[in-house]
Amino acid sequence: MLNLRRLDLNLLVTLDVLLAEHNVTRAAQRLNLSQPSVSVHLARLRDIFGDPLLLPGPRGMKPTARGEQLREPLRLALDALGQAVAPASAFDPASATNTWRVAATDYGESTIVLPALASLRQQAPGTRLAVLELAPDRITRQAEQGEIDLAFHTSAGAPPGLRRRTLFAERYVLAGRVDHPRLQRKPTLRQFCTLEHVLVSNNGGGFYGVTDEALAQAGLTRRVALSVPHFLFMIAALAATDLVAMVPERLVCGNRALKTVAPPIEVPGYEMAMLWHERAHRDPAHQWLRAHIQNAVAPVR
C-alpha cells in the first residue's frame, strides 16, 4: 500500500501536469519550474509509485497503464482540494438553500426570532429555519458538533468558550390585564407586595426570582400565586385574570390586552446575547445570518 506520508502535494501537481502535457519541457513552463526540477519530481514519483508513470515516445512521453489509471482520479482530487482551500465565495441570500438551526426559549422566539422572520423569508426565501428548545447545559456541545448555528441566551448566564454578540438590554415592567383596577396608576411598594403575582420559573415550579431578591434586600416579600415554565402562558394568564407579573418589556410591548406600569422597586435587568462556535465564525452564510438577526432586533420605543 502506498504510504501517503511520502507524498508531497507539489509532486502530485507535477504529475497532473505531466499526464496532461506528455512533455517535461512544457510541464516545466506551466509549473514555472526548471526542466531539471520537473525531472527530479518525476524520478521521485516513479520511486514512490514503483512505476515509470511516463515513458519516452516518438512524440513526447507516453503514460504507462498505471499513469493512465492515475490521470482522472488525480485530477478530481486536485480539483476538490482546490475548492476546499479556495477563498470562501460571497453569500447570496436570494439563491441560498441553507438550513439554519437556532436554540431559543419562548422569550427568545418572541423577541429575537419573530422580529427577524419576515425579512428572513423575504431576503432568503430558499432557506429553512429550525428553532430548537434552548438547553443551557448543552449549548456548547451542540455548537461544537454543528447541531445548532446560534443560541440566544442571557449574557450573564452564557457558557464560556463561545463567540457572543450582545443584541439588546432588557428591563422589567409590571404588567396585568388592560383594565386591571389596581394598575391604572403606578402602585406603591406596599400595594405591589399585596398583589397576586405570576412568575416564570426555569427550574420548574419555583416561587422565588429576581424580584423577590430585590424585595428581600428591603425586608419585604410578595405573594407569588402562580409559577409557570413559559412566558407565553404567563401572558395569557395575565390577560385572563387579576394576576400581575414582572415581565421583560420587549415581551409585552404593543400588547393591547395588557397594561404596563413602572414597578415601585428597582429590579436588575439583563442583556440578551447571540452565541455561536468558532467553527462558524468566518462562514459567509453564518455572518449574513448573524448580521440579519442583529439588524432585525430593533430597540424598544
Automatic annotation (TrEMBL):
User: Which classification does the entry list for the species?
Assistant: Bacteria, Pseudomonadati, Pseudomonadota, Betaproteobacteria, Burkholderiales
Q: Where is the HTH lysR-type domain?
A: 7-64
SUPFAM superfamilies, alphabetized? Periplasmic binding protein-like II, Winged helix' DNA-binding domain
Q: Does the keyword Kinase apply?
A: no
Keyword match Transcription regulation: yes
Q: PROSITE patterns this protein is in?
A: HTH_LYSR
The entry assigns this protein to a family as follows: Belongs to the LysR transcriptional regulatory family.
Q: Which domain of life is it from?
A: Bacteria
Q: Keywords in alphabetical order, please.
A: DNA-binding, Transcription, Transcription regulation
Q: Kindly provide the name given to this protein in its UniProt entry.
A: LysR family transcriptional regulator
